[in-house]
Structure to design on (361 residues):
């Protein structure tokens, strides 16, 4: 149950923050209290600022209240200590199709970004900034964020990548749904991130990984899911991978290059049909395997070479139930703790599976 005292204190802190920051807005025009409290609640909670929700709140106001919402480029200068923002980071979802409110929110976002440029912000997230469909922002605004450790750019125009800041300190980089990326050409920015530990490049129409990935010798997590034409291979220089996500990339077999990953503990093969599992043999350190929606009719025999496997996802593999597959061989996996059979048409726990194994149905 939500602690009432904590809730009241949180509400009070948001209102105090809103009133303090609102006094620091420069032009005579002011945001209405309702809209400002909404914005302040996002900024103080560490959540991303969703422009579409702010716009919806704006549109619900009366005409008189709406007339008070007139922002110029220098309108927003939030007051807060650098430490406050360093700990929380900042993030924006720029999706807004209404031109009038889009212009207002564009000014809001750009001014907030300017306010924090040069600060020691460690985390920045931008969603849905792909130009005319939503709110486009000035590309050079990202150039001053030089202390970032985590950067997420989702559904943006590739031109934003050209003005990225000095990203040499980044450990986490998410470049997903990059528009007009020239089949990965603009993703070559990863060559400037030598200390990267997590790289996510989903939904980018990749056919090959950027060659610069060979420079990421500290990489531990790689997610290139939902690139159905990707010819997946890894350079020999990558030897520290612990987690690889290959959902829906039209694999015919487990990539042979994964056998060189002696530290690999988690592998996601979601939505890959008709897989040849032979190369599972040799992935001796694997602890998690995701075979969600792989249209399996039986357990792959190669599965039983994974003696350290702890968690197995068989979600949405309906043929297992329809063909009455024998799941008792799972008992041969000594470290297995959990099997997920959700959406696979099982209504009761399959008979014969050891009680030590948690079964989700």
């Amino acid at each position: 149950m939500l602690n009432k005292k904590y809730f009241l204190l949180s509400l009070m802190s948001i209102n105090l923050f809103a009133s303090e920051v609102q006094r620091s807005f420069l032009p005579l025009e002011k945001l209405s209290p309702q809209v400002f409290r909404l914005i302040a609640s996002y900024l103080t909670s560490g959540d991303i600022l969703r422009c579409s929700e702010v716009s919806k709140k704006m549109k619900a106001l009366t005409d008189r209240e709406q007339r008070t919402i007139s922002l110029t480029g220098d309108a927003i200068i939030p007051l807060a200590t650098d430490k406050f923002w360093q700990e929380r980071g900042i993030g924006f979802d720029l999706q807004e199709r209404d031109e009038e409110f889009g212009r207002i929110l564009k000014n809001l976002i750009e001014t907030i970004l300017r306010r924090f440029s040069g600060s020691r912000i460690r985390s920045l997230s931008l969603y849905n900034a792909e130009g005319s469909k939503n709110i486009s922002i000035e590309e050079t605004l990202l150039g001053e964020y030089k202390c970032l450790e985590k950067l997420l750019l989702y559904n943006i125009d590739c031109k934003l990548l050209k003005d990225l800041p000095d990203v040499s300190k980044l450990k986490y980089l998410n470049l997903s749904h990059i528009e007009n990326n020239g089949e990965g050409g603009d993703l070559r920015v990863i060559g400037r991130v030598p200390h990267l530990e997590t790289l996510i490049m989903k939904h980018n129409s990749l056919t090959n990984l950027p060659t610069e990935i060979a420079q990421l010798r500290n990489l531990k997590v790689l997610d290139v899911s939902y690139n159905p034409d990707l010819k997946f291979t890894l350079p020999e220089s990558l030897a520290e991978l612990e987690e690889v996500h290959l959902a829906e990339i039209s694999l015919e077999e487990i990539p042979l290059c994964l056998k060189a990953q002696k530290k690999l503990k988690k592998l996601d093969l979601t939505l890959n049909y008709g897989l040849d599992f032979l190369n599972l043999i040799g992935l001796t350190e694997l602890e998690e395997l995701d075979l969600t929606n792989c249209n399996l009719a039986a357990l792959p025999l190669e599965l039983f070479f994974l003696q350290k496997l702890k968690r197995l996802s068989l979600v949405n593999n309906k043929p297992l139930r329809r063909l009455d597959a024998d799941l008792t061989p799972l008992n041969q996996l000594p470290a297995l703790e959990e099997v997920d059979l959700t959406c696979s048409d099982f209504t009761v726990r399959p008979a014969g599976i050891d009680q030590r194994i948690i079964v989700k149905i």
Summary: Confidence is low (pLDDT under 50) at residues 1-30, 64-81.
